[in-house]
Specification:
It catalyses: D-glucose 6-phosphate + NADP(+) = 6-phospho-D-glucono-1,5-lactone + NADPH + H(+). By secondary structure, this protein is of the alpha/beta class. The chain is built from 15 helices and 17 strands.
Length: about 475
């Protein structure tokens, strides 16, 4: 595995810890090697010392000195300016070995380097069928730039060599969603417009932009989270049963969903979307700065740190069922969940609480993974009155063994050559096509994003978006 951007934050926080865990779990082939690349003039020892400092912080309680030393035997460092073709013959020489070896080139750099890296790899023959390329997000800034990157990469690599990563698809509970939907006969008949009132998908973060102000200000929440993670989750909820678990069978079904999303007109953007930006407040009792006071954020920036959207899917299964999507930084808590609200009973025979959906399926992805089915049952006592209760599947309680992190799972999939949890180019194109009218309308809007207090659930307009549709966000109902 060749890590372009081998000294960067993503490699330190996610990729090397994930590879370490895979090593410690015995999931890596004994011959597996990691070659980290960067421009710094470091020796292997200097690199390993740098990595260990970060690894201790990010691997936390699973860091074991013995395992770590063993893992380090797999790692090497090579100085390379990725944009300079002159360094690549040396790289090819370093990788020369068994002709059948699988080489995974993980491009953990800014995307403007991707085209050059692929061209340089091809020039030294590092694009044969044993080479796989992992492309990190964001893959472009809009449809045109995404197409430009994909075209440049496609000149040298076939589509089945390309692994466009979305780490949300590596989360255990996202795969559990597939297992639950297609492994039980109970849900399928209910999983449609006749029985589902609305679907809510939330990825809320309590963190702010941290040290990524520069990157974030040019990106915003719509490109950073909605165009990829939220749309992918929506696809997994809404797609038809695929014919098999083959990568293309799954990706074909997801593509149909994105293509069925109703396009936004400028008026829809006004009425069906909310963009917000956090101002100072408190998160978990700790005072925090507003977005405009964060490092590297230009004065008066209008970049959104919160998005809520009413999405509609124009197909037979989902016509008329709103899918509410929401994400934001500096919200009240870190939580990612999918809530399926089922329709109410047609006639309320037994009295009970009003305003609550009788049945909800809450699939929690993080911080802890669980699936909760809410329903009504008789309240204890003399009278026949309903009270809400639930059945809970707590995956942590069910198995206390360590759960593979999303990156660990996806890296192993790349090594095994499984593309099912990676995005195909046509999916990406359609996702950009859908978000672009929103981006365009926001960029020309005369009004700034709506402010919300850090530590809240976003701007009041977000609750109003749902109440106009006669519903409320899960935590408000
Ligand atoms: N950090 C995160 O949590 C996430 C990051 N991403 C994406 O991953 C990518 C990397 O992000 P991140 O790690 O945060 O970024 P960093 O800025 O921390 O790291 C960038 C890396 O790129 C390397 N680099 C830059 N220019 C060159 C060059 N010409 N030749 C060789 N190496 C070069 C740098 O190495 P050096 O300076 O040593 O040469 C450094 O290792 C970005 O596209 C980001 O959007 C995606 C999801 C999450
Ligand atoms: O891709 C990204 O995801 C993270 C959130 O990921 P999570 O697994 O911690 O929920 C987000 O903070 C970051 O801005 C974004 O680029």
């Amino acid at each position: 595995m060749v890590l372009f951007g081998g000294t960067g934050d993503l490699v330190m926080r996610k990729l090397l810890p994930a590879l370490y865990q895979a090593h410690a779990a015995g999931s890596l082939n004994n011959n597996g090697r990691v070659l980290a690349l960067g421009r710094k003039d470091w020796s292997r020892e200097q690199y390993l010392a740098f990595v260990e400092e970060h690894a201790r912080v990010h691997i936390k309680e699973y860091f074991d000195v013995g395992q770590w030393q063993h893992f380090c035997e797999r790692i090497d460092y090579y100085r390379l300016d990725a944009s300079d073709a002159a360094g690549y013959p040396g790289l090819a020489e370093k990788l020369a070995g068994h002709p059948q070896r699988v080489v995974v080139c993980y491009l953990a750099t800014a995307p403007d380097l991707f085209a050059g890296i692929c061209e340089n790899l091809a020039a030294v023959g590092l694009n044969d069928k044993h080479v796989r390329v992992v492309l990190e997000k964001p893959l472009g800034h809009d449809l045109a730039s995404s197409n430009a990157i994909n075209d440049a990469v496609a000149k040298h690599f076939a589509e089945d060599q390309l692994y466009r990563i979305d780490h949300y698809l590596g989360k255990e509970s996202v795969q559990n969603l597939l297992a639950i939907r297609f492994g039980n006969s109970l849900f399928e008949p209910l999983w449609r417009r006749e029985w589902v009132r609305d679907v809510q998908i939330t990825i809320a973060e309590d963190l702010g932009v941290e040290s990524r102000g520069d990157f974030y200000d040019g990106t915003g929440a719509l490109r950073d989270m909605v165009q990829n993670h939220l749309l992918q989750l929506l696809c997994f909820v809404a797609m038809e049963p695929p014919a098999s678990l083959d990568a293309d069978a799954i990706r074909d079904e997801k593509l149909k969903v994105v293509k069925s999303l109703r396009p936004f007109t400028p008026d829809d953007v006004l009425n069906k979307t909310v963009r917000g930006q956090y101002k100072s407040g408190a998160v978990g009792g700790r005072p925090v700065k507003g977005y405009l006071e964060e490092d590297h954020i230009p004065a008066g920036s209008r970049t959104e740190t919160f998005v809520a959207i009413k999405a509609e899917i124009d197909n037979w299964r989902w016509a008329g069922v709103p899918f509410f999507l929401r994400t934001g930084k500096r919200l009240q808590e870190r939580v990612a969940e999918i809530v399926i609200n089922f329709r109410d009973v047609p006639h309320k025979l037994v009295p009970g609480p009003s305003g609550l959906p009788a049945n909800q399926l809450v699939i929690r992805l993080q911080p802890e993974e669980s699936i909760r089915l809410h329903f009504m049952a008789k309240a204890p006592g003399d009278s026949l009155v309903l009270q809400p209760t639930y059945l809970n599947l707590d995956f942590h309680e069910m198995s206390r063994s360590r759960r593979a992190d999303a990156y660990e799972r996806l890296l192993l999939d790349v090594i095994r050559g499984s593309l099912a949890l990676f995005m195909r180019r046509d999916e990406l194109v359609e996702a950009w096509r859908w978000v672009e009218p929103i981006l365009d309308t926001w960029e020309t809007a005369t009004t700034p994003p709506k402010q919300y207090t850090a530590g809240s659930w976003g701007p009041a307009a977000s609750s109003a978006l749902l109440s106009r549709n006669g519903v409320a966000w899960h935590e408000e109902s």
